Amino acid sequence: MNQHEALHEHIGLEPPHLSRTSTLLHTPQASRHLVYIMLLQPNLTLPSVRGRIPFAKSNLDEYSPSEFEAFDVLRPRGPPDEETQAASLSVLSVDMRVTENKEDHNTHKYVSSNLIVRRNKEFTIIIQFNRDFNEQQDNVELEFMIGSSPDENRGTYIILPIGKEKPEVRWKSRVVETQGNYVTVGVTPDASCIIGRFLIFVVVVNDLGKRRTTRNTETDVYVLFNPWDPADEVYIPSKTDRQEYVMNDVGTIYIGEFNYFTPRSWNFGQFEQEVLDACIFVLDSGKVPLVYRGGALEIVRQASALMNANDDYGVLVGNWSDDYSEGTAPTAWTGSPEILLKYANEGGEPVRFAQCWVFAGVLNTFMRCLGIPTRVITNFNSAHDNMGKLNTDIVLDEMGRLDRSRTKDSVWNFHCWNEVYMKRPDLPEKFSGWQVIDSTPQETSDGLSRCGPTSVSAIKEGELSYPFDARFVYSEVNSDVIYHRSDKQGKTKVIYVDTAYAGKLILTKKTGSSDHEDITSTYKYPEKTVKEREAWQNAERSGMPTRDYLPQPEAGVTIELQTDTVNMGDDFKLTLNINNQTNQTCTINATITGCVAFYTGVTSATFKIENQAATVEASKTESLTVDVNAKEYTPYLKEKGNLLFVVYGHIEETDMSLTTMKVVTLQPPKLTLTMTGTPQVGKVLMISVDFQNPFNFILQNVQLRLDGPGLIPIKIKSYSQILPGGSVKYKMSMIPRTPGKKVLMASLDCPLLRQVTSQLEIEIFEAE
Question: Domain 239-541: which topology?
Answer without folding.
Answer: Coagulation Factor XIII; Chain A, domain 2 (3.90.260)
